[in-house]
Design brief:
two-stranded parallel sheet; elongated; alpha/beta; 33% helix; four-stranded parallel beta sheet; 6 strands
Length: 178
């Protein structure tokens, strides 16, 4: 990673984000809940910053709250991942949602809800669809040992651990493609 660069994506130019952490979040959550609108409130992940605010907004506006669970948040905390999320999860409160959607059968067995598998194209990374030599040349990867990370670059995805593993390979020709 070049000095001064982040391995994580940055928000698009013109996007207005308000970052609130720790004690400030407690006072900001009601403001965020008041700002919610629509016929249904959808929370992504059972976190205080999403589901917690959605529950407050659902109560305030008398709207149903749908909780979408696309991974098991607590597995990052208790599954041995070193870079753990510091966000408090509200898994035990998931039953308060009007409806739950999950993207795999493990999550469905854990939380119930409707199974909505991720819309990934399974053929996207099929090597037979590509001229690998041409692709390597176009990306400047000729004669390189290539490792690929096709996931989402977020702190809990393990990308930092993967970077350290690539470093430990001690191969000058190794390159990680994200």
């Amino acid at each position: 990673v070049p000095a001064g660069k982040s391995i994580y994506p940055v928000e698009p130019e013109g996007t207005r984000l308000k970052t609130v952490t720790g004690e400030r979040f407690v006072s900001y959550a009601p403001e965020a809940a008041r700002a919610l609108s629509g016929q249904v409130i959808v929370a992504v992940k059972p976190r205080t910053s999403s589901f917690g605010v959605a529950l407050l907004g659902g109560l305030r506006h008398n709207k149903p709250v749908v909780l979408d669970i696309d991974d098991w948040e607590l597995s990052y905390r208790f599954g041995g991942v070193r870079h753990q999320t510091k966000q408090f999860t509200l898994e035990k409160m998931s039953r308060l949602a009007s409806a739950i959607t999950v993207n795999n059968t493990y999550l469905q067995s854990r939380f119930g809800g409707t199974l909505l598998p991720s819309g990934r194209d399974g053929t996207l990374f099929d090597p037979s669809r590509f001229d690998t030599g041409k692709s390597r040349r176009a990306l400047g990867l000729d004669n390189r040992f290539v490792l690929m990370f096709p996931g989402t670059a977020v702190p809990h995805s393990g990308l930092e651990d993967l970077l350290q593993a690539v470093e430990r390979l001690e191969r000058a020709d190794a390159v990680l493609v994200v």
